[in-house]
Design a protein that fits this description.
It is a single chain. The protein has two domains: about 200 residues, Bordetella uptake gene, domain 1 (D-Maltodextrin-Binding Protein, domain 2, 3-Layer(aba) Sandwich), CATH 3.40.190.150; about 130 residues, 3-Layer(aba) Sandwich (D-Maltodextrin-Binding Protein, domain 2). The protein is α/β, with parallel strands linked by helices. Strands 2-1-3-10-4-11 form a six-stranded mixed beta sheet, with helices on both faces.
Length: about 350
């Protein structure tokens, strides 16, 4: 069942950790809990834990930052918990990608939140949605991917790796087949290596580079398509769908899904977080994102950093919510169909 009925005892996690810093008066600061909506080992988890290792150094009192995982329902469980249940006092933040955050605006009845009301802190990187196939498969080009049967690994019904193949089948007349039920991209990548599936669609390119560097280094995978508005400088030879398929649906609806995924590694606090606490979190995030020690750790981990401010994410949420109703209704219908 969905998040509001699955209240994991995160308060115990928050209370259990010892504080590291002290307030000017000598009292211990309360630890900060950073909750990640995926299982351990994937790209989201690696970025979340990278932030947890450094963010506290830039907050008043240098509190300990404790990372934990709350996977399920394509990150909806964590997003619902953060919005509706988590303390609103600045002691809890979560990693809420915009794909998940915008689900409520696209008619997902299980998304019990409003993307415009999260207290957005900042994003460590963008999100480059790609189709990735094992190099030993016969899928070599974008045309192959869109016209041949390809067996892909999927996760929960609301997860990107489950929804994107269905969207592509509907909007671009592809023949993708998804085997769902894997828990996170870490399990899907293992399934690809074992030959259970041929690839995946909906994962982030930087996340793949981070979690499976040997795939990139040893050319174990091909990237036939990237699902973004314009080719990423990181994948200059990989086309986008609109370069290949020119249909009204592709022109009008796909850009909404691209906007929905623009910020792939955002941190947010619950709505109603005190303005002073939010300002502290935003300042600390921006300082961390440009700190040499943090950047060195990111480079060592293989993480790409392309930071965005919380105000930028807030603006995107507000612009997305202002989409013309008829276009939003079309996108909603496609998303609901893909979520079944």
């Amino acid at each position: 069942m969905i998040a509001t009925k699955i209240v994991i005892a995160m308060a115990a996690v928050i209370a259990a950790a010892p504080a590291r810093g002290q307030t000017p008066s000598g009292g211990h600061t309360q630890p900060l809990s950073l909750v990640i909506g995926t299982s351990a080992g994937g790209g989201y988890d690696l970025y979340g834990r990278l932030a947890a290792r450094h963010l506290g150094r830039f907050l008043p009192g240098e509190p300990a930052v404790i990372a934990s995982n709350m996977p399920g329902a394509g990150q909806l469980i964590m997003a619902n918990w953060l919005y509706n249940v988590a303390p609103k006092d600045g002691t809890v933040i979560g990693q809420v990608p915009t794909t998940t955050a915008f689900d409520g605006l696209l008619g997902n009845s299980q998304a019990h939140y409003d993307a415009t009301k999260f207290s957005w802190i900042g994003s460590l990187d963008g999100y480059i949605t790609v189709a990735a196939v094992w190099a030993e498969t016969p899928i070599k080009t974008a045309c192959d991917f869109l016209t041949q049967k390809v067996v892909l690994g999927g996760g929960a019904p609301a997860s990107d790796v489950t929804i994107w193949p269905k969207l592509v089948n509907s909007l671009l007349d592809a023949r993708l087949e998804t085997i769902a039920g894997y828990i996170g991209t870490a399990q899907i990548t293992l399934a690809i290596e074992r030959g259970e599936v041929q690839g995946m669609l909906g994962a982030d390119w930087h996340g793949i580079e981070l979690s499976k560097p040997d795939w990139v280094r040893d050319k174990k995978i091909r990237i036939p398509l990237q699902f973004v508005a314009e080719r990423s400088p990181d994948l200059p030879d990989t086309p986008t769908p609109q370069e290949i398929v020119d249909t009204q649906k592709a022109r009008q609806i796909l850009p909404l899904f691209y906007a929905r995924q623009k910020y792939g590694r955002p941190l947010a606090a619950p709505p109603g977080t005190p303005p002073q606490k939010l300002a502290e979190l935003r300042k600390a995030f921006w300082s961390m994102a440009h700190d040499p020690q943090f950047l060195a750790d990111a480079a060592k981990s293989g993480a790409t950093i392309d930071a965005a401010r919380g105000e930028d994410i807030q603006a995107l949420a507000e612009n997305f919510s202002a989409t013309p109703p008829d276009l939003l209704a079309q996108a909603t219908a496609e998303l609901q169909k893909a979520s079944q």
